[in-house]
Amino acid sequence: MIARLTYGARPGEHARVRALAPTEREAAARFIDEQLAPGYDDARADQAVRRLEALAEPVGELYEYQPALLRDQLADSTLRRAVYANRQLQEVMTGVWSDHFNIDISKGDCRWLTPAYLRDVLRPHALGSFPALLRAVVLSPAMLWYLDGRVNRRGSPGEQPNENYARELLELHTLGVHGGYTQDDIMEVARALTGWTVRSRGESRFGIGRVEFNAGAHDDGEKVVLGQRIAAGGGARDVHDVLNIVIAHPACARFIAGTLCRRFIADDPPAAAVDAVARTFATTGGDIPATLRTLFATAEFRAARGTRFKRPFHFIVSALRATDATTQGGRPLIVWLERLGQVPFQYPTPDGYPREAGPWLGTLLWRWQFAGALVAGRIEGTRVNPAQLVGRAGGERELLAHLLGRLPTREEETAARASRQAIALALSAPAFQLT
Amino acid sequence: MTSLWSSGVRDDRRTLVVVFLRGGADGLALVPPIGDDAYHLARPTLGVRARDAIRLDDRFSLHPRLAPLAPLFHDGTLGVVHAVGSDDTTRSHFEAQDLMEHGGDGGGGWLGRFLRERNGAQPGALSAVALGEEFPESLRGAPSVTVMRSLDDFAVDHDDEPMLRALESLYDADTMALGGRLAPAARDTLAALRRLTQLRASPLRPRAGADYPADDFGRDLAEVARLIKGRVGVAVATVDLGGGTRTLPRAP
Predict the structure, then answer these.
(1) Where are the domains of chain B?
(2) For residues B60-77, b (16+ Cβ closer than 10 Å) or e, as one string?
(3) Residue B54: beta bridge partners?
(4) Co-location of A216 and A160 in the same domain
């Protein structure tokens, strides 16, 4: 349970969680409570990123920094938070939403706006309410840039609005490609979103990055979205009406449930689990913690243990956590994310990094090289202490059990001895690639 | 968008080598429009003179110092895409480079998007190799990017046979993982690692008397040749030439 709600167990974590309650089952329940507890502060994670000062700047000030610096600091802080956060599930879910509401930091003003997107939009809402998260995304300067919403304005008669964001809002963010909407719905949503824009560099010297509603550019006529009428004259309220209609549509609950089940259960999750999760999503109005509780309680989730292929970011973070590495992050770690092909906020198209295992199967070479480099101390700024790890675990076999998340098989023990590098071997083994 | 490169002419054994002239180049000196009077009027002193230029067609010629390229142009190996620029008016060299390498205002580099979207490709660990120290923007967003000066930069831990054999035994035994897909992926990886080890042990023997210059650019190209001949799955290799303020070439 620990491994599957987090970016991997640290040494001693299993014992800590087991001690929460008399039975294993109750202890697991207590752990879920702990990870879903309300609140948002994570002093340990904050401490780990406190030197990445640029990322704390307000939106307008971010424009004062070099894009390359923000890009690397953002990758670095995402990584360090994942390694050090106590609120692990919050970081995991922030990652889920980063894929779901993907932004590529290399596009346009996203070069400056993406740090604020992660900080002000995704992370605060990651374990909150889906409708609030969606509203924050739709009206974020970064998303208005990334999917061209900022240039979506009422045109002269006969001219079409820019439908780019409306299409992705329905296809990727809420209903899914088979969600039962039509091209007309896309155009009506696009009309409802006209006029929302963001002050950009070059247009203005003040308030850069500020989101504004320009009533003159808004198409204020009547709209019909998914069969529901939005009366003329709604102005800036139109966007909220549209989102309410979309979120209440049954396809939305199913689509978000599917997204969560693909993360936690299988590439092609069983319908029974998706149905159960979708029901909770619908009845709670998109309450993310309640929805996750239902997911974690399904038989399908329990049965899927050890079947999900960790993606590269997950692999690297879990290796650092499992070995209790101390890390200052930085370029020496980021280059491994580049080799493994998963640097946060660098996926070019709106669909986000692939969830399924297939596209990542070619990354074993760099996983093995990373394991070797980590244990051998060849990653500058990142250190593990192999002797201490063995000592604290109480022996090599016990350490293997911690790294693999279960008692080692005879083959694994033999291979560990034969490799002469037991820790690197365990991090490279099939069992460590799975969760 | 997918039609061009999924048209069936793809060959997984071929490697695209992209050389970026970081310093910039004056297109009107490289391939001057000798047949256009406006060129001579605009460049009365700097321009390449008609009698020095190497004629390509009625309009364009090559700079005399590019004469060795003329046969390549005539047999169709060399193409010139002339007068391509951006409407970026900042005159910032870095923004212009970014725009060129991203192929417009979209996300990711043009090579990164190409590799990410390539149909049916199982992106290998060495599918994109950038020779040098810097991550080129053109590869931003690719499934895997290896920035290296040389194969010799690779760590050697996993090249030691005890480790490779231990990994082999574990992955071979795990036939069920990921619906049976993990074990074959590991076999491919082990084969690639063993090829890399061999490659490192064997110096490049250029064919046809190719003589690589002893500068960084020559070394990078020789390394690319070694990788291609080693068949380690390099789909794209990028090489940078120059940087800073170098421009190529000047009028004679």
Answers:
(1) 16-25+108-241, 32-77
(2) bbbbebbeebeeebeeee
(3) B62
(4) yes
Are residues A121 and A219 located together in one domain of the fold? yes
Residues 106-165 of B with CB under 8 A from A: 106-109, 112-113, 116-117, 122-127, 135, 137, 140-147, 154-155, 157-158, 162-163, 165
Do residues A61 and A204 share a domain?
Answer: yes
Residues A43 and A31 occupy one common structural domain: no
Element containing residue B128 per DSSP (H, E)? strand B128-131
Instruction: Report the C-alpha gap between A149 and B69 in whole angstroms.
Output: 47
Shared domain for A81 and A195, answered yes or no, is: yes
Q: What are phi and psi of A117, to 5 degrees?
A: -65, -45
Q: How confident is the prediction along chain A (435 residues), in pLDDT tens digits per residue?
A: 899 999 999 999 999 999 999 999 999 999 999 999 988 789 999 999 999 999 999 999 999 999 999 999 999 999 999 999 999 999 999 999 999 999 999 999 999 999 999 999 999 999 999 999 999 999 999 999 999 999 999 988 778 899 999 999 999 999 999 999 999 999 999 999 999 999 988 777 789 999 999 999 999 999 999 999 999 999 999 999 999 999 999 999 999 999 999 999 999 999 999 999 999 999 999 999 999 999 999 999 999 999 999 999 999 999 999 999 999 999 999 999 999 999 999 998 999 999 999 889 989 999 999 999 999 999 999 999 999 999 999 999 999 999 999 999 999 999 999 988 999 999 999 999 999
Query: In chain A, how many domains are there?
Result: 3
- Domain span at residue A357 reads 312-433
Angle made by CA atoms A286, A290, A296, in degrees to the nearest 5: 125
Q: Do A369 and B124 make contact, defined as CB atoms within 8 angstroms? A: no
CB A324, CB A389: distance < 8 Å? yes
pTM for the model: 0.90
Do A279 and A316 belong to one domain? no
Verify whether the Cβ–Cβ distance A346 to B108 is below 8 Å: yes
- If asked whether residues A9 and A41 sit together in one domain, one would say no
Candidates B105, B116, B123; nearest CB to A107:
B105
Distance from CA of B207 to the nearest CA of A (A): 30
Task: Tell me the ipTM for this assembly.
Answer: 0.90
Both A185 and A275 in one domain: the answer is: yes
Pure H helices in B174-212: 177-180, 182-201
> How many angstroms separate the CA of residue B125 from the nearest CA in chain A?
6
